[in-house]
Write a structure and sequence with these properties.
295 residues, mainly beta, 2 domains, eight-stranded antiparallel sheet, six-stranded antiparallel sheet, 21 strands, 11% helix, elongated
């Protein structure tokens, strides 16, 4: 009986060990070197990163790496796709799941060798099992060089949709004080501000634009519930403030003031989410800050 009890205890301990088995990973360092091993953990919370040092175990020995010298924690190996790099390198830090989902934010730690602790851009702490994680990009500037990534050229602009009339000519944005003026009568204005992929740009928009004569004007969030596949951003409300880099894909701005990572390199443009402009009126006034510096 004692032997059976001992065997059962060993089985339980083996299950516990498997539950907390450390995941193997490769640290891609900022100098291009790679180090592989198990994501070891210590302390009451089972942290891998201790005193800003990430730790790998290999053949019974552990080695520490300063977190600022690790560009990528690679869980699955292989070479990331251009699509993954394009999305992941748009933020200072990002994590990629095996289903292709990419999220910017901030690396917090890895616990028990199998759980990624991540803080998203909204400040919420999230937990992901490493079996669902592909890579964690800790230093996207270094990763861009290590993977020799260059953002693809922006596609040519699409013709205007749905009106059968030529779109108004884009103009350089006028200024009013320290703000750029975005008229409701133009689809896009050129701000003259050059941005690079990954730059974090903050917008502060005021003012109102009219979309239909006789109806109340709307603010930077647009007209509530007014959505259409004809707009540059179909999921965003009619008349909302939007942006793009060069002739790249539009992105939403509205009235939010959270920094937005730029999806490409080129001249920043601001516009109105609409498909017909001759009957519009009013304007938004937009202050722009790039990486914390007013422009």
């Amino acid at each position: 009986m004692k032997l059976k009890a001992f065997a059962s205890l060993l089985g339980v301990l083996a299950c516990v060990a498997l539950t907390f088995a450390a995941t193997r990973a490769t640290f891609i360092l900022t100098n291009g070197q790679r180090a592989s091993g198990e994501l070891v953990f210590h302390g009451g919370q089972g942290n891998n990163m201790i005193d800003n040092q990430l730790n790998l175990g290999n053949a019974g020995q552990e080695k520490s790496y300063p977190v600022d010298q690790v560009a990528v924690i690679d869980i699955v190996g292989g070479t990331p796709s251009q699509d993954e790099l394009g999305k992941a390198l748009a933020s200072d830090q990002s994590m990629v799941l095996r289903n292709g989902f990419v999220q910017g934010g901030h690396f917090v730690n890895i616990q028990n060798g199998n759980t990624l602790i991540w803080r998203n851009d909204a400040g919420q702490e999230q937990h992901y099992g490493l079996e669902a994680v592909t890579r964690v990009y800790l230093n996207t500037q270094s990763a861009r060089q290590l993977f020799n990534y260059t953002a693809p050229a922006a596609p040519p602009p699409s013709p205007p949709i749905g009106t059968g009339r030529p779109a108004p000519v884009m103009r350089a944005a006028r200024t009013r004080g320290n703000a750029l003026v975005v008229p409701g009568t133009l689809p896009w204005v050129d701000t003259g501000i050059l941005v690079n992929t990954g730059d974090r740009v903050t917008f502060h928009a005021t003012g109102r634009v009219g979309l239909v004569q006789g109806e109340p004007q709307v603010g930077p969030e647009g007209k509530t519930g007014a959505l259409s596949d004809k707009y540059p951003l179909p999921a965003m409300q009619n008349g909302a403030l939007i942006g793009r880099v060069g002739t790249g894909q539009p992105f939403p701005i509205g009235s939010q003031q959270t920094p937005i990572p730029m999806p490409g390199t080129g001249t920043l443009q601001l516009g109105i989410n609409d498909d017909f402009f001759p009957d519009n009126s009013g304007a938004f006034e937009v202050s722009v800050t790039v990486n914390g510096r007013p422009r």
